[in-house]
């Protein structure tokens, strides 16, 4: 699952809209690319806000994605606003917890590149339901919590790190802090209402990284729902060629501009053009069958 919002100043041509193209690339890799696609028939769900244009929605649907419109989450934007203006809608990601028709969801931000199939993340022991740590304190004004929960992820690595990163080697910014671009969770309405309560309370989390810091607060290690560490080979932030060569499964990076290691750019470009070629051939076959 991912979330797509309307990119600020997005060009009319979808092919020039970097974040939209990132979502298409992610869908292509999850559904169609031979070495990364699901072998279990897992769906690719794209949550879209109301301002996402219809031509983008139609393209994603034709690519094989399930396009699911969601309402923006309402909150005090004067008090809670992110470091970057393009993050204005990221709190809407929390609506994924309302989708209780799904048993377990892997959430990836759109700006991801895969290196191998992700099916096995659902088998990681960290995705088993955890019970509340009631020995830890809980503020009385944040609403109820479920008796069990799932929040599995990995700590956010430093830009310069070993692979696989470890706390012992000081490879993490903070071993208790995760990036909200990659996590597995179980939808739960009680938790969604818990998040809504937190949003109403001033000073509970730093809004610099809005939904990320809210989730890190809600699933803090000192709270009753500490997030559970997954195998570090599933994901890396600030990827390098070395990470890719050593087998990391997913890389949180922008396909159009490799951030830390420019040596990754040829690989990113190749995925984009493979995607373009795949859909061009698929469209041609569909047209031929229609006539």
Automatic annotation (TrEMBL):
Organism superkingdom: Eukaryota
Gene3D superfamilies reported in the protein's UniProt record: Spore Coat Polysaccharide Biosynthesis Protein SpsA, Chain A
UniProtKB keywords: Transferase
Pfam families to which the protein is assigned, alphabetical: Glyco_transf_8 (PF01501)
Gene Ontology molecular function: glycosyltransferase activity
InterPro entries noted in UniProt: Glyco_trans_8, GNT1/Glycosyltrans_8, Nucleotide-diphossugar_trans
Name of the protein described by the UniProt record: Nucleotide-diphospho-sugar transferase
Origin species: Aureobasidium pullulans EXF-150
Classification of source organism: Eukaryota, Fungi, Dikarya, Ascomycota, Pezizomycotina
């Amino acid at each position: 699952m991912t979330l797509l919002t309307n990119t600020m100043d997005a060009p009319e041509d979808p092919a020039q809209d970097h974040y939209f193209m990132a979502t298409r690339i992610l869908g292509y890799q999850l559904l169609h690319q031979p070495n990364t696609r699901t072998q279990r028939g897992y769906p690719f769900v794209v949550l879209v806000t109301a301002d996402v244009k219809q031509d983008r929605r139609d393209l994603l649907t034709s690519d094989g994605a399930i396009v699911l419109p969601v309402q923006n989450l309402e909150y005090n934007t004067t008090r809670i606003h992110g470091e970057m203006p393009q993050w204005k809608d990221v709190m809407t990601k929390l609506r994924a917890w309302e989708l209780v028709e799904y048993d377990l969801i892997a959430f990836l931000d759109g700006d991801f590149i895969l290196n191998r199939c992700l099916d096995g993340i659902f088998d990681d022991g960290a995705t088993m339901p955890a019970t509340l740590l009631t020995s830890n304190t809980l503020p009385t004004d944040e609403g109820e919590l479920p008796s069990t929960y799932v929040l599995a992820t990995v700590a956010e690595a430093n830009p310069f790190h070993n692979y696989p990163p470890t706390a012992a080697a000081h490879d993490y910014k903070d071993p208790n802090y995760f990036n909200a671009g990659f996590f597995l969770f179980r939808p739960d309405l009680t938790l969604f209402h818990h998040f809504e309560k937190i949003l109403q309370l001033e000073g509970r989390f730093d809004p610099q990284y809005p939904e990320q810091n809210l989730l890190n607060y809600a699933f803090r290690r000192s709270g009753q729902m500490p997030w559970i560490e997954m195998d570090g080979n599933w994901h890396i932030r600030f990827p390098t060629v070395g990470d890719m060569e050593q087998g990391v499964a997913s890389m949180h990076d922008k396909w159009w501009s490799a951030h830390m290691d420019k040596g990754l750019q040829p690989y990113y470009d190749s995925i984009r053009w493979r995607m373009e070629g795949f859909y061009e051939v698929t469209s041609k076959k569909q047209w031929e069958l229609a006539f």
